[in-house]
Every structure is written in C-alpha cells, then in structure tokens.
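Sequence decides. Our protein:
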Amino acid sequence: MIMRKRPRRLRSSAGVRAMVREHCLRADDLVYPLFVCSGKKVKEPVASMPGVFHYSVDQLGPVVDEVEGLGIPAVLLFGLPASKDDRGTQAWCDGGVVQQAVDVIKKRCPQLTVVTDVCLCEYTSHGHCGIVEGDRVLNDETVALLAATAVSHAKAGADIVAPSDMMDGRVAALRDALDGCGFENVAIMSYAAKFASSFYGPFREAADSTPQFGDRRTYQMDPANGDEALREVMLDVEEGADMIIVKPALAYGDVLYRTKRACGLPVAAYNVSGEYAMVKAASSRGWIDEKRVVMESLLGLKRAGADMVITYHALDAARWISEG
C-alpha cells in the first residue's frame, strides 16, 4: 500500500516535534496571584490551596524575589483587610494592605509589573462585590467606589488595575477617574467575561469573601451564555479596557477562543482556585502526574488564545519550564 500522507513523520523524534510545535508556554506568559493580609510576620497556608499562602506586607520580599528570579513578569494582588464594613471602605484607603503591598513591591522589584484586583468583596462585611440595599447589589453607587479604589492603587504605584466586580459601566468609570487624576498610563485589565462559577470556592476561603446571603448570579455571568460573554467583552473594549480576562479558564476555552478572535486586545485566562485545587488533590492521591497535567492545561489555554495565564501554578510552572 502506498501512503503518501503520514502525519506521524512529524512526531517521530523530540527534535522534529520541537521544530513543528505550534504553541509554547514561557515563564513570561504567567501572572502569579498573591493574597496580602494585615498584621506582621504572617505567612499562613490556605488549607484548600496547597502551596498558596496569606502574606503580610513585611513577608512579601522573598516571594516577589522568587517570582522575579523565575522570569514571571507580573503579580496580581488581593487584599485581606484588618476590618470590614458594609461599604468596603478599606478597599480605597491609602494605607490599605494592597496599597502598602504595591509600594513595597515596586520599591523592592521595580521591574516587576504589579496588577491589583479592584473589587469590594474582600472588604465588605456581607461579602458581595458592591453596595447592598436590601437584597440588591447597587450598580452605579458601587462603580463610584470602584473608581476610588483604582485611583488609590494607582497612587500607590500599581501598573495595572483589574476590575473584577462585573458592574455595568465600571471600565469607563475607572478610565475617567484614572485619567482625571493624572494616571492615564495605568492600564485596565478587565475581568470582562467573569462567570458565576462553582470553581471559585477555594478562593473565597483564601480571600474571606463568601457572600453572607444570596449569591452573585445577578452580576456575574450565567455559565450557559457564550454570546453574552462576547457582548460583555466588546462593551469593555469600547469603554477603554487595555486587556481582557476570561474567568474561569479550563471550562471556558470556547469563550477564550472567541474573545481572542473578536476583541483585538491581549487576553488573559484566569486558571482559578478550584481548577488549581482539583489538580493538587488528585496529584496528592497519586491519581495524576501533577507536572504533566499542569503544563498540558496551561498550554491548552495558550492554544485556545490566551496571551497570559493567571495561575496559582505559576511558580511551579516557571521552574518546570526552566528545567526544559
């Protein structure tokens, strides 16, 4: 039998496979999330996320040195304040934990890009992402506080602010507020397609942000809706977003692919806490090869269209990449 087309020829050796490889994962594709808390000398493990810690500001030095040393270009900061109230006032406080962390990191590692999560859920006593009236989360009143939070992060030295609240019109409000305060060079990385997902459970433990009543389905997106996700993305593009986040990642590869093709901006996939925790749990039982599953998953997000991957696996992945 004459067989002229033999695709296996291009898989015949490691060298040939490397020559024809369509996508690759590099350390500079990664963004490492950090949970910053109040207090001193705190480095506490997050029980549901092995390898992830709460850090007080004075303990950030070694981990950001490691991030930079591994060639990871950016960190994404989440804050756990000493106290909470119904308006989340610690979110935009000049002396807040995120604001302090930004200042410390930029002084220690000035070339490291600092991205800050802009939301109220970690700071409100009720755990919702905005101002609550009765059982409703108010949109426009919340947007004003998010804008104030973004400006406070920019004042502290943040390079990029990342609104994750899913309020209508918040990207335009942040852009206007930043520009009006002289921070026109601070970029906005918008959580444009953020779904009301069951994969966020471990994060809510880590950030102490579980809603005290109801859920977030009136503002985060229905997981069934891909077309609506694209509408959200394009609204944020029109409002001035510089980068787009799709969250979660692994179950939303179709949204990631469509977003990259449609929006014309750099796109990040957020490989979220539940996705991370499942890999850690299965690997701890010996059911999967952690390194191979992590690298395959992250590479799959690149193949689907991600320019960046926000992941709690970033330190391990960067080490594995350096090992070849």
